[in-house]
């Protein structure tokens, strides 16, 4: 029997970027917040002098233990889903700060087109441009409505960058200058300009200079050590929840953090959430935490899974296309890329930062004419100098022997003479792509695992062919002596790392028939339950999702404060 604890104003499930922002904003407004995090506590001191690629990159130090809980996957409904037993396609964060600790720091605003994708696609190309089975929809909010929240996230995190010449309008400049421009970044920029494209320095959460944010949180500048992705930052220069929003929440005296607390159910009665049931994984004891408001802020898969396990919202049915929980799962198309090999130029590729990059959006969103193309949307094209660490970087030209004298010679020669240009491709939702509960496999507590049904579509193959050719074109303009362009997209392969940019499952919109939450991320069916995260994305854009997720989190926080003062639907 679960031990019932004293009631709180708000309980937050998952303390990463979403949970940290919600906790910070609500406690500043005077609400009492309990944050439940199933992983361990973290602090900057944990990463002092820990540049250990083997431990963090190859042995997955910061990620979820797949032997205790994982996901199952199938390419379509005709085959049996199997558990993901080792990491590959994406990485599931674990511990305080979640994936917000081990990210690279690339921080974009989705394009205005993304938020009204169905309306604008039909207006420009007609209804026939959207293929049968593609379930794109408008998000129930516009870029202009979300712009102030983008700015709030950027000021909190100290984002630095140049204004995107093809992006949505900004009300203010970035709060900090962009990162340094390396020689290869300049080559990329010059090549893009030579091709009449519009490059700009990528927005970065790696601080270019010392910065104090509006909450009074001071952080040091990036040292360009190259240990960002899959690592915590030993300098605190990379914005993450542990060094930005969580100290603010703790300093109010109204935030109680409980780590090692695995939430198994959202409790509800009469159309209202009443709290959550969780297990203290250090003792095995069960607890009930009552709350006036429940806020789901865990990762995409867990947000969807907990709602399904708790019988909240109508589960999605791919056969009828009805229901909302699990609907519009989308991943990201990362296969379009090119590698250039230089014979006469050598670069310092071992210095860098997670978001030290140059990018351009000429082929993102609807910034180009799709009339004669067999896909909609597109992606950003970038060169990123993240810092080539010693173990996993050994790029040699095709045809090089896989071992022996010639392999060693080519490895040494091209160690600092290879440059990759890549496309971050959008991913559209389809009726037969969804999340649901697995009917066979369970976690350590006996609860069904979340199941992914997904594969790449013809639209994705056409986009990869197009974007890969553009990557190769840019590398040739950069002066590479040998260019390899990757223009073919095979079936989705869960064993190969691509990105951790999963979206959908609890999507936002303007109708309870086709969305689970409104534009404050408030559930239609349970008005005191908010579901925050990239699970709200109705499709995935041509960018990393964190900036857009952060903006939606700030808007949700505003909505929760309004709801606390006057309960009811916010739209």
From TrEMBL:
Signal peptide: none annotated. SUPFAM superfamilies: FAD-linked reductases, C-terminal domain, FAD/NAD(P)-binding domain. The keyword Protease does not apply. Residues 221-330 form the Glucose-methanol-choline oxidoreductase N-terminal domain. Residues 436-552 form the Glucose-methanol-choline oxidoreductase C-terminal domain. Pfam families: GMC_oxred_C, GMC_oxred_N. Keywords: FAD, Flavoprotein, Oxidoreductase. It comes from the Bacteria. Belongs to the GMC oxidoreductase family. This is GMC family oxidoreductase. It comes from Paenibacillus dokdonensis. The lineage of its organism: Bacteria, Bacillati, Bacillota, Bacilli, Bacillales.
């Amino acid at each position: 029997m679960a031990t019932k604890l004293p009631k709180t104003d708000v309980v937050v499930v998952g303390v990463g970027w979403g949970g940290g922002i919600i906790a910070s904003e609500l406690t500043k407004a005077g609400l009492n917040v309990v944050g439940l995090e199933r992983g361990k506590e973290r602090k900057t001191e944990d990463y002092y002098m820990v540049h250990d690629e083997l431990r963090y990159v190859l042995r997955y130090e910061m990620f979820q233990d797949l032997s205790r809980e994982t996901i199952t996957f199938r390419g379509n409904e005709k085959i049996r889903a199997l558990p993901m037993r080792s990491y590959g396609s994406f990485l599931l964060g674990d511990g305080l700060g979640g994936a917000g600790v081990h990210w690279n720091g690339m921080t974009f605003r989705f394009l205005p087109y993304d938020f009204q994708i169905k309306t604008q696609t039909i207006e420009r190309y007609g209804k026939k441009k959207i293929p049968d089975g593609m379930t794109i929809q408008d998000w129930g909010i516009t870029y202009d409505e979300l712009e102030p929240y983008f700015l709030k996230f950027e000021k909190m995190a100290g984002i630095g960058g140049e204004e995107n010449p093809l992006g949505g309008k900004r009300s203010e400049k970035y709060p900090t200058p962009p990162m340094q421009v390396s020689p290869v970044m300049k080559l990329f920029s010059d090549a893009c300009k030579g091709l009449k494209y519009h490059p700009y320095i990528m927005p970065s959460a790696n601080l270019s200079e010392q910065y104090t944010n509006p909450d009074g949180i001071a952080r040091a500048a990036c040292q360009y050590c190259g240990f960002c992705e899959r690592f915590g930052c030993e300098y605190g220069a990379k914005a993450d929840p542990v060094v930005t929003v969580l100290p603010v929440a703790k300093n109010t005296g109204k935030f109680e953090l409980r780590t090692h607390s695995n939430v198994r159910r959202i409790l509800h009665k009469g159309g209202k959430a009443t709290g959550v049931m969780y297990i203290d994984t250090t003792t095995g004891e069960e607890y009930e935490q009552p709350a006036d408001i429940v806020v789901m802020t865990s990762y995409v898969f867990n947000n969807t899974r907990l709602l399904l396990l708790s019988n909240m919202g109508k589960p999605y049915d791919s056969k009828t296309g009805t229901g909302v929980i699990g609907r519009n799962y989308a991943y990201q198309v990362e296969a379009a890329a090119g590698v250039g090999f230089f014979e006469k130029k050598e670069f310092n590729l071992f210095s860098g930062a997670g978001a030290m990059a140059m990018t351009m959006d000429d082929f993102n969103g609807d910034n180009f004419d799709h009339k004669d193309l067999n896909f909609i949307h597109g992606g950003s094209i970038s060169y990123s100098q993240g810092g080539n660490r010693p173990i996993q970087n050994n790029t040699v030209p095709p045809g090089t022997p896989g071992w022996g004298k010639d392999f060693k010679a080519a490895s040494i020669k091209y160690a600092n003479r290879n440059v990759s240009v890549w496309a971050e491709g959008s991913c559209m939702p389809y009726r037969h792509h969804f999340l649901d509960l697995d009917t066979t496999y369970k976690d350590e507590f006996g609860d069904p695992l979340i199941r992914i049904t997904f594969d790449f579509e013809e639209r994705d193959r056409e986009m990869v062919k197009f974007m890969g050719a553009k990557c190769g074109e840019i590398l040739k303009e950069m002066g590479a002596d040998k260019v390899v362009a990757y223009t073919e997209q095979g079936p989705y392969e869960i064993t190969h790392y691509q990105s951790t940019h999963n979206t959908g499952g609890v999507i936002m919109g303007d109708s309870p028939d086709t969305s689970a939450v409104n534009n404050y991320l408030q559930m239609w069916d349970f008005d005191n339950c908010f579901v925050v995260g990239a699970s709200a994305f109705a499709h995935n854009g041509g960018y990393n999702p964190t900036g857009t997720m952060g903006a939606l989190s700030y808007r949700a926080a505003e909505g929760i404060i309004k709801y606390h003062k006057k309960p009811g639907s916010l739209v």
